[in-house]
Structures are given as C-alpha cells and as structure tokens.
Design goal:
There is one protein chain. The chain is α+β, with helices and mostly antiparallel strands and 381 residues long. Helices cover 44% and strands 24% of the residues. It is built from eight helices and 15 strands. It has helices at 21-48, 53-67, 73-95, 213-230, 234-270, 290-298, 301-314, 359-380, and strands at 2-15, 110-113, 118-121, 126-130, 136-142, 154-163, 166-179, 188-193, 197-201, 206-210, 274-278, 318-322, 339-340, 347-349, 356-358. The strands form three sheets. It has a seven-stranded antiparallel beta sheet with strand order 2-6-7-1-5-4-3, sandwiched between helices. Helix 1 (21-48) packs across helix 3 (73-95) and helix 5 crosses helix 7.
C-alpha cells in the first residue's frame, strides 16, 4: 500500500455581528503592526541581500521582541518566514524580468498564524486568535455543509485575511490516506479534458460530461472587456469586475465538483482503483494565435485535475499522470496516425484498420493503453 498526505485549505468567514468594537479595533491594530513588522524585515533583508529565513530570524528576532514585548513571539517568527518568502519570490520575478521595482513591499492585509497563534474548535465552529498581552480573541466562524469534511482531518497552519467584505480565516488541513500500488493488473478510469467536455472511461466504455467551460469563460471575458471600456470610475469598475469574476468561478467550480463526483462514482461502480489523467502542462505553451493563447490561459484545466486528484485519493483511488502527446491522433488499435473523418467535425478515421470514432473516445482509450504500457516498462526496467 502507498501512503500519501492529502492537503486542503478551508475558508471560513468570521461572524463579526456580535463582536465588541474594542475587539474589532484590536484586530485592526494587530493587522497594522504585523504589516509594519513584515515590511521592516523586507527592508532589512533587501539591504543585506538576505534570502534565508534562518539568517533573517537570527538577525532581527531579538530586536523585534524587545520593541514589541506585548506581541506574542510567534507573530515575529511567522513574519520572518513571510518576509523571507516574499524576498525569494521577488528575486525570482526580477530574474525573469517580470518586475521593475528595486525592492518588494508587503501591502496585503494577511497574518500568518502557526499552531501557537490560533486554536480551532470544529464542534462549536470557533477559533481563538492570540492577541497582545497573552490574551485570546474568540471568533465565531460561519460554516456550511462543505466544511463538515474537515472535522476528521488534522489541522495545520492558517492565514487571517482582512478583505473589504469581511474577515476570513483560511485554515490548512491534512489527512493521511492509504492507496493501492500501481500495477498493470489494476482496472483504470482514464480522463481526457477538453475546453467544453470531459471524457472518461477505458477500453470497455467511454462517457462524456458536457461542461461548456470554454463558452462560459469567453462570455465572462467579453463581459469584463465591456466593463473596462464603458464603465467610468475605477472603484465602480473594480467592484463590477470582482462581482462577475466571482460568478464565473462559482459556475466553473460547481461544474468541476459535479464532474469529479460522477467520475469517482463510476470508478467505484466498475471496480477501478486508478484514475489516469494527462500531464497538461504542455497545453499552456503559446500556440501562435493570440485568440487561441487567450482561450488556453483562461482554461483552468489543472484546477479540475487538482480537484479530481484529491477527491480520488480521499476515496482510496490512486492517480497517475501520463504523457498526452498525440493521444487523440493515434489509432488505439493499430497505432497508425488518424485523419479527420468527413462524417463529423470531431470524428477521426484510421486508413489502416478502418476505425472511426470521436477524438475524445480515442484519447481515453490511448490514455488507458499508455498507462498499462508505462506500468509494464517500469516493471521490466
């Protein structure tokens, strides 16, 4: 058996309706001080060319503890980690020519909480946040059916995020799962992802899920374009853009989770223990056409794969990625190159054996075949 750890993040909105004004003021003051400390650490790290968290911690921790004696020490600890990670990301962006600034600045309203700075109670859905002077602030978390899955998981670190629409707690959870060994005798379900459809199955059957993601993405893209061209006022424009961006992601996310549940239910029904997917990183490369590149970069195919992967592992299914090259252009029977069929837009025909099937069906069968070939090659090598 294989042992893997599934990591998930849950977002909780904090209910501030019954919170006293003094407590809210203390939360705002905590955000202000934390941002000030992180920016001071970034300034010091940039002047001394420090990228290591350990080096930054040893250089500034004692000084900051003396200046902020009432602040719990782990806030300074996480601020050092935050500053070091920001500096590393900034240097990488500079190396790639994607940033013109001389040094980074922390403008976000986020506090990194390690396990010493907060406590979480899943039974009453409350969180305790460490405050100045050794006190704790109790926050009630708004929750729904989605959050029930996290009750049996182990708690990790968290982020306290202050946004225009409220205060949020983003908590990390993890769970250890036991998965079967990968071998050529296991029954598999292969998944082929396209802009508007998701095909899944194996040599025995292939089913199609219509997502219309490409159509949805294009509609919201054109809507955002009209807002940018016609709506005056940056504040109103930003508000409308965030509104429709949220609606777009909500529709796509619901489609993703519905498709993932259907695939997993089918895998359990037919006794499959492995989900085979494509390594889609190559699809993000520029293809020459500006319109096509825009569609590919709006298409969040890897997001769906991540959702399906963690859902599959939580249900005891293994996940394997294979090379997707030419899977929809190669005959799964004889291995010859396929030609477009005159009988349909997405139909392909083999000159040698006469096979005529849809591109999605062919891709699923080739992914299944490729998985078994890789298992055999790994066993003989």
């Amino acid at each position: 058996m294989l042992v893997e750890i599934v990591k998930l993040t849950a977002r909780f909105k904090v209910d501030l309706t019954d919170v006293e004004e003094a407590v809210i003021s203390e939360i705002y003051r905590l955000f202000k001080e934390y941002r000030r400390i992180v920016n001071e650490l970034i300034e010091f790290a940039a002047s001394k060319h420090i990228m290591s968290f350990v080096e930054l911690y040893h250089a500034k921790y004692r000084e900051l503890r003396q200046r902020f004696p009432m602040l719990p020490s782990h806030y300074i600890f996480t601020a050092c980690r935050y500053a070091a990670s920001i500096c590393k990301s900034f240097i990488e962006l500079k190396r790639l020519g994607m940033c013109e600034k001389e040094k980074p600045t922390f403008k976000g309203r986020t506090i990194w909480l390690d396990r010493q700075l907060f406590k979480f109670d899943a039974d009453s859905w409350r969180a305790l946040i460490a405050a100045q002077g050794g006190r704790w602030i109790t926050l009630r978390l708004l929750h729904g059916k989605y959050h029930e899955r996290f009750k049996g998981m182990k708690l990790g670190e968290a982020r306290l995020v202050l946004r225009e629409d409220g205060l949020y707690l983003n908590a990390a959870f993890h769970q250890t799962v036991m998965l079967p060994e990968l071998n050529a005798e296991e029954r598999v379900i292969a998944v082929d992802i396209n802009e508007n459809v998701i095909a899944y199955g194996n040599d025995d059957f292939v089913e199609i899920i219509v997502t219309n993601e490409g159509i949805i993405r294009t509609r919201y893209f054109l809507k955002r374009r009209r807002i940018q061209l016609k709506v005056r006022g940056k504040q109103l424009q930003r508000k409308l853009l965030e509104k429709y961006e949220g609606r777009e992601w909500q529709r796509i996310r619901e489609t993703y989770y519905r498709a993932a549940r259907e695939i997993i239910d089918k895998a359990r029904e037919v006794g499959a223990t492995v989900i085979v997917m494509e390594n889609l990183d190559v699809y993000k490369e520029d293809k020459g056409s500006r319109e096509l590149n825009g569609r590919l970069h709006r298409w969040s195919c890897r997001r769906f794969q991540w959702i399906l992967e963690y859902q599959a592992k939580l249900h005891g299914l293994n996940v394997k990625y294979v090379d997707p090259a030419h899977t929809s252009k190669t005959c799964p029977v004889c291995g010859s190159e396929l030609d477009p069929s005159p009988n349909g837009r997405r139909l392909m025909r083999c000159r040698r054996c006469g096979l005529e099937e849809g591109r999605d069906v062919i891709a699923v069968k080739n992914l299944t075949k490729r998985y078994y070939e890789e298992c055999v090659n790994a066993r003989t090598s």
